[in-house]
């Protein structure tokens, strides 16, 4: 299974990668540091799910999500907005733009394991 993460925070990327390895050891994590890189890598990669941070340079998560959902070839890939925000406004925006869901970046590694495991379980079904 291939997963894609769009995030510009190196610490968050490393933590996410460790969690993915623990939850799904056979998974491949494709990392992009902004929305433009996500779109570029999607020309040659087809992940089962994309996790997108909202605040990234060059092209933020909202812009990237909108592009993905407007593209006939990419619109069916589930996109999880993976962010520090838990505001109702951001949850509504995510829903309106077609995100699979919005999850708040947890403070504890164990919580991240549960989040990733739960999402992958939903994607598998």
Automatic annotation (TrEMBL):
Gene3D superfamilies, sorted: 3.40.50.2300
Keyword Cell inner membrane among UniProt keywords: no
Keyword Lipid metabolism: no
InterPro entries registered for this protein in UniProt: CheY-like_superfamily, Sig_transdc_resp-reg_receiver, TCS_response_regulator
4-aspartylphosphate: residues bearing it: 53
Pfam families in UniProt: Response_reg
Biological process (GO), any one: phosphorelay signal transduction system
Keyword annotations of the record: Phosphoprotein
Response regulatory domain residues: 2-120
Protein name in the entry: Response regulatory domain-containing protein
